[in-house]
Amino acid sequence: MTILVTGATGRVGSRFVPRLLRRAEPVRVLARDPVRAEPLARLGAEVVIGDLRDGGALAGALKGVAAVVHLGAAFREVGDEEAVAVNRTATIELAEAALRAGVSRFVSAGTTLVYGPGRGRPAREADEPAPPAWAYTTSKVAAEEALLRLHRTEGLPVRIVRLAFVYGEGDPHLAESLAWARDWPAHKRLHLVHHADVGQALLRAVRAEGVDGRTYNVADDAPVTHLELRELNGESVTEPGTGPAVDQGPADPWEGIVDTAKIRRELGFRPIYPTVYTAYEAGAL
Ligand SMILES: NC(=O)c1ccc[n+]([C@@H]2O[C@H](COP(=O)([O-])OP(=O)(O)OC[C@H]3O[C@@H](n4cnc5c(N)ncnc54)[C@H](OP(=O)(O)O)[C@@H]3O)[C@@H](O)[C@H]2O)c1
User: Fold this and answer.
1) Residues of the chain falling short of pLDDT 70
2) Hey, which of 29, 137, 163 would you mutate to test ligand 1's pocket, going by the most ligand atoms within 8 Å of its Cβ?
3) Residues near ligand 1 with C-beta < 6 Å?
4) Which of 32, 86, 194, 224 to mutate to test the pocket of ligand 1 (most atoms within 8 A of CB)?
5) What is the CATH number of the domain that holds 48?
6) Number of domains composing the chain
7) What pLDDT, in 10s, does the model give residues 95-115?
8) How many whole angstroms from 199 Cα to the centroid of ligand 1?
9) Residue 170 within a domain
10) What is the domain range of residue 118?
11) Tens digits of per-residue pLDDT, 111-127?
12) Burial of 247 (0-12, 13-18, 19+ CB in 10 A)
């Protein structure tokens, strides 16, 4: 069964596609830059060049495809207009084209940022999204709503996987986190998920029977505090004056933390790296 992967040249996709190819799955990728797609072509992926916002490219890319894993998204260094055009509008068009092409699986990457703060407990999939008012998060919520509507009205075989903060396998994301986490109180936490576990979750979502229209949180078992993030990035926090602020607490200590019981129960997900420290010890950062 050929799997079409969008966003294959991105941080998640460039690590997920080789995993698929190692399992001898036929993979087609939709990429807008042949140079960025070249390493995937060398590994055996079929490359279709095109932009997600080009409807003509979508129909061609979907020909003969049984499953779609939609990772393409605009949120790094793009304006609001582009974020909405790619994350909402193009996602809906891709789903409509996938319905016409008769795919049997449509796995779409979401983000746990859609939950927002204020629940006083880890966020669950049934919670109403209350995202921060950024084009990225609001366009992801709008896309999810449209995908679920297409499931109800036209039978789109969608499975949404909401990813926590993804790290590992050379991704600079953990180091980048300090650009904003540095202002956090010492004990505010970030929920992580390793690329190997994102790969596991996406594969489980593709293969599972009878879970169309469902949404799953994907995260590890041990969110890290701001203090730990600093230490993981090699910063000393033990000298006087070098540690983060301790005189304030987060308004909601559960902000950004998600419950993963559903993906464990329904898809059999068990993190390969339950904590960032197991990934560190395995040399998988
Ligand atoms: N990384 C995380 O921590 C994280 C957390 C939660 C959710 N997610 C979700 O996971 C998915 C993948 O994220 P990522 O971190 O891998 O993002 P990324 O590194 O920014 O990659 C985005 C991918 O989308 C492609 N893309 C963007 N605009 C496009 C367009 N107009 N046409 C075709 N392709 C386009 C990019 O192509 P180019 O290579 O040509 O730019 C790239 O392959 C996204 O849906 C994101 O929302 C990620």
Assistant:
1) 238-249
2) 163
3) 7-13, 32-33, 36, 51-53, 71-74, 76, 86, 109, 111, 163, 165-166, 173
4) 32
5) 3.40.50.720
6) 1
7) 999 999 999 999 999 999 999
8) 15
9) no
10) 3-164+195-219+258-272
11) 999 999 889 999 999 99
12) exposed
